[in-house]
Queue: 4 jobs
Job 1
Amino acid sequence: MTVDDTGSGTGGHPGPGGDPEPEPGPSAGPRPAGPEAAGDGAAEAGPHAVARSEEPSAADRSAAHNTTGTSDDDPLALRLEALILGAERRYSPFQAARSAGVSMELASRFWRAMGFADIGQAKALTEADVLALRRLAGLVEAGLLSEAMAVQVARSTGQTTARLAEWQIDSFLEGLTEPPEPGMTRTEVTYPLIELLLPELQEFLVYVWRRQLAAATGRVIQTADDEEMVDRRLCVAFADLVGFTRLTRRLEEEELGELVEAFETTAADLVAAHGGRLVKTLGDEVLYVADDARVAADIALRLIETLAHDETMPELRVGMAFGTVTTRMGDVFGTTVNLASRLTSIAPRDAVLVDSELAQELRRTQDAPATEEQAKEEEEERYRFGLQPMWQRPVRGLGVVEPWLLTRRGGPR
């Protein structure tokens, strides 16, 4: 895996049509939601708008089906969609944009940022889609967000929730909707199950989001100055399973999926429990950050130690660097991140390599001895970590780096 691997979430819910629809002139301002605003009122925009708001073409219906995963001929699929969305299909993209009082161009930007595919002019949108558009546009009009920031909000939310939704369907609902009795179909079980689970899962999602928002806000307000809110000094670490490509050829798909899930779960739990923040998982690799060098180093060694006791797990290698990091949309970027990634690729099996900045920070906090000679002269238990210099070497794109092998002294604390 590389540090630049990113995924764009794709949802199971429709987005706008392709080319932006021309605005209908004087009536482009906000309108109340309703049939008058979304349906017959479109006739005021002239013949072109009337044609676009009539029955969708076969291509539009096909695009809507591919995006929503539901067919107009499948009553249960439509009932499930209405249950989850809380409303029935009512608007084409043009009608929804007009009802929300936003331009088709802006509506398209929002929907695509959220990860939804184009559906032409099929009537596949609901009152919830109109309300979401109105809220985002309202934040821009009120000056609380710039248009670019509102699009970023849509994109980050779409990417995060798309992955969550895919996981819940693949790993959660799929197992729970197995027919409990012979003769029952999965579809007969799915509707009442989702009806029961949906409000509980929604409440839990909001709870976790508020908790995470409170924690992130607390970190920001403790920052020394405004510049550090975006460009901060952090410890960045990659933990990578060794020989994962070979495993993919040897293991069955189900076994491989279980291994990846076990690795991600173990890593996520250790990172969270000991004060780090998991940025993302990339299958055979996890990326985490920590404000404190001691915390980052302890997590790295705990990962090695924990997986070493699991015979089903491959060996692990970790690379870490300390320095200025740019944060955007929950991700991290910059030279420090790239250096941590490169150190991971050259780290020995079941070992942790750190850069000279992180090594210096551990010495400054007296968590590691200044020299090995000093360590030999003092008690073993005084220092948390040991640092062994490795050969300097050129690293592509970063020049010559000085890696240090990080070890534990005195056991975990």
Job 2
Amino acid sequence: MTCVIGLISGTSVDGIDTALVEITGTEDDLKVELLSGETYPYPTHLREQILEVCRGGSLSMAQLAELDDAIAIQFALCAQAIQKDGKGAALIGSHGQTVYHRPPLAPHLARDKGQEVRGENAHSSTSHLPLGYSLQLGRGETIAQITGIQTISNFRVADIAAGGEGAPLVSRVDAYLLASPTQHRCIQNIGGISNLTYLPPRQGNWLERICGWDTGPGNTLLDLAVHHFTHGSQTYDRDGAWARQGQICDELIQLWLEEDFFHIPPPKSTGRELFGWDYFQQCLVESHVYHLNPADLLATLTEFTVASILESYHRFLPQMPNEVLLCGGGSRNLYLKERLQARMESVRILTTDEVGVSGDFKEAIAFAVLAYWRNLGIPGNLPQVTGAKAALTLGNIHPPFL
């Protein structure tokens, strides 16, 4: 039995999800007990700085280093706070704060952009495509020194170095915690960006048949809209109550679903670089043609998240699931959940809480497990999900030397 802390702040930048868990077993016999979970908000100035960087704001190298340390300090404080009334941890797994994510370029897109480069063999037409790039701030070595606890971070880099997307990384954890012996399940995480893991029944070569990818926007566009319409006084639409008052504009949803990302087959990942500030500004301009009020636009953006999830299921899943298990902040948006159920009448829409895994802290739990596996030398990625060339142990180990 090992006590581990998992830390992550997602693309919504709404706080640091912190989970203190006890882990036993390895893979088939993996068991995780959540001892305590909290979401600690960033100081306002730090959150605003992170969001500005995510919007493409420029930084000097000195400012980047300061921001990296400032985020790490907040993560370390969270790790200390979660242990105050509970058991002390032996290990920390920290995903950090994503501020930039660039997936590897698909071959057909590389050719379209004129990026094909000949290989060493002059007779080969193999393209040498640039690897993906993903930057998470909040360096693990700082967390380790402040907490005195061995910390594992930089979980995406090994997968990316092997040609993968570096995301989604939680599918292998989903498999061992949430697969059913009889049901076809989709684990649908709705954070700032939405992603899924499809889990066939736990029979035969079930692990090889798992698939997963980012489906598109989750809460990011909704949060940007709320921030815009309230002039920054609110950051999200609680329970989807504001969106519920609006009218959905189907014409806009069909227009937005023409975005190239939705037509690219998996493996694939995305982030604020696509579904962020500029995209929201485009949505806002396009909504003026239809004379939408704020509630109408929120209703339409909510339906866009739902429609993009469903479109992804129909295009790329081997079959529709019997159950969809929601997690992440979007699982608490009652209106979004109702709209998803309305569009998937024959599928049971549940939350991961209903099958024993906290929906609020599932991602933090997953990075605790990935850190635990890293210590045991167990691979953390699923190549068919990320596109990596091999299953690999994930994360850099930072012992507390000071």
Job 3
Amino acid sequence: MFRNLPNRFSFLLLFKIEILIFLILFIAPIFFFPISSTHKLFLVIWDISALLVISFFVRRRLKEIFSVIEKRIKKLSDDDSADDGALKLSYSFKEIETSLNQLSETYKNDIAKMKQLERIRTEFLGNVSHELRTPIFTIQGFLETLLNGALEDPNVNRKFLEKAAAHTENLNNLLNDLIDISMIESGEMRLSFRYFNLMDFLTEIVKEFDPVVSEKNLQIEIGQFNKKLEVFGDKNKLRQVFVNLIQNAIKYSNSGKIELTVEEEKSSALICVKDFGVGIPEKDIERIFERFYRVDKTRSKDVGGTGLGLAIVKHIVEAHHSKIEVKSKVGVGSEFSFRLKK
């Protein structure tokens, strides 16, 4: 009950001068003047005068306090995010000081985040417009050529239709990725966690890439690990992670192999997707998970892709309370790794 009394009455320390004046003006007459009927009128006049003096000092002190608070609020309202230090009212009023300082810090952080989100939104819209424009204009060009007479030419009509169909597929993949990342970032992605066999899961995914890797003279190898190992996660979303990582490994590898390794730990499994391809420059590693970021824009046109794959991978891995890590060296290859609960 009495534990918080010092904190509750700490505000009195702010008015220590006024309290001292009160003691002097109200208590002193008791010692210096005998309380009798002849002195009652004098004491009334004395008390009224003392109250006026004390109210003057109290009003001045409160004005100082509210002036400091008003300046801080005005500073926040003017969108002034400059760091001018913590608010200092006194060595008392700690709760007010703490609350206002927290409000100030939160406000500055919110303003910074809003500006960052606005910049990201602008860049995102620009990137989406650019990515959509390319396949649409290409499809439009093929169709116009066909309508202008090429449709009757058996030497080119099928070729143009196949190219138009390929760009339509790219456009469809881009829109699907946009829908996926929109749902993820808006918090609408729903995960269904359960245990599943990791070896069977990886084997099934690798088989899907057999036709692709044979064309590029590549091999996908799954390293030895406990075949009965089960991990905990959303199987469908994790499939999307592995497909994106393996696709990237294939795109940026001309020959050799791609390794999938699993290292069993105490409470998790460390999973790595490693290639021996072109590698990623060190300056680009921190940005490869950004939406539409291209390490080599010229080469990206040749290998295709939507530019959203790694951003989706990052979000899905983080939704599994994990973190994806990258090791890469130009001309040597890249390694993407993350952990799953077992």
Job 4
Amino acid sequence: MALVGPGAGRDNRTMEAGNDVANDMTQRSLTSPAGSDGRGADRAKGPLAPLVRRIEHEHSADAVRRDPEYIERQLQAVRRYTNYFSPEVRGIEYLPAEGPALLVGNHNALFYMPDTWVTALAIIDRRGTEHPAYTLTYDLLLTVPVVGPFLRRIGAIPAGSHEAEAALTQGALVLDYPGGDWEACRPWLDRNSIDFGGRTGFVRLALRTGVPVIPVVAHGSHDSVIVVSRGEGIARLLGLGAMRIKVFPIMLGPLGLATVLTPPPPLPTSITVEFLPPIHWSSLGPDAADDPEVVDRCAAEVAGVMQVALDRLRVERAHPLRRGITNLVSRAFSH
């Protein structure tokens, strides 16, 4: 999601910084996913090999880049979509109006991810569209025709590349959902749990760059889709591990059980997104990124403050589906 800051067009240095980010990322982009030796396509057999090659291409320097004017043209459609979920945003004052920051959120509701769009709009309202801002995105989504170029133009960058570090170094904002598909596809019974799946890359990124970490907690979004199972076994049988995919979610819809291939539409739950106070680790220094104990401790700190906030929202904003339906009906009759 392309995000960006207040006073858009107000300072030419902001736009110049955005150009510097793009140039730096072009020079520093990886040509293969993180943890890969550049032979991912060789390891992936059969029909998966072309997809892996497309993923590797998305880490190359000639990928489509973020386009602020294009973002402006998409805002109305995004706001219509998020209005379906009666969003409420809290704590926006904790988001700095300018400068680099790493936002860390809990991921929800599969690919519908309405809270992600609510967060993106809140950041745009706060910082405008000219201020450089990016979101780390599932590699596979960037390979899908039409979808991939769209995501790139609104500020998506591959999660397994060096683009995020380059962007933060140049003063941009980066939004990360460490839990990825593992958290976004967690069972409905675990909807009120923060689950990063043991991933700590966001901590190393923050430590290396010295930027503040701003936790962003969403409540109600994962109530919009009833996930029965992550479907890890199915994912293994399909060989999706070659694309770093560990899930093939099974959901409950109006017609019974459904898979990710035929997902039910999301329910109109009321979503609350809350920005929390920044966490600063700059005093630890960039070398701390190589200390596993420090990294684990920092990751636990972020997950802990987010879980406390989510527990509080669960009580304060109980029954998100009932509230969402009530809001939709009220708006319908008010018109």
